Amino acid sequence: MTSQIKSDEHFMRLAIAKAMEGVNQGEDPFGSCIVKDGEVISCEHNICTSSVDVTAHAEVHAIRAASKKLNTMDLSGCVIYSTCEPCPMCFTAIYWAKIDKIVFGTRIADACAIGFTQLNLSCRELKQFGSDVELVEEVLKEESLALFNHWAELHQ
Known about the structure:
By secondary structure, this protein is of the alpha/beta class. The protein contains seven helices and five strands. It has helices at 3-24, 48-51, 58-70, 88-97, 108-113, 123-127, 141-154; strands at residues 31-36, 39-45, 78-84, 101-106, 134-136. It has a five-stranded mixed beta sheet. Strand 1 and strand 2 (39-45) form a beta hairpin. Helix 1 (3-24) packs parallel to helix 7 (141-154) and helix 3 (58-70) runs parallel beside helix 4. It is globular. The termini are far apart.
């Protein structure tokens, strides 16, 4: 296993832990971590429920925090780790923020299968419209699926 894969797994585990923190606070099971040059810039979970804001997805929340911390909207050189494949809204925010790479665990189809209302439009499909963002798919997918299962158990 290369050191890059270990790094991807390390940062994905931070996103998973943050998502679990959110689930335990009554939020949906999504987390994102933004990293630049091996340093965590932000790590956030969904806050849609507590903020009463449908746009407060983990990725958008993490982008807002990273932009504030770095005092720029240009997040070139950053990687975003997301427990689930970013939805079209989040993918577009990632594109506008100029993030270089998306690493994700589960797919949008997995979120749909557990009952989340998502536009089942993959990042790979969205890339066709001019994005050169790099995609690394299904990193620690089983651990991210466990988040969905934990959330589902709490909501039965």
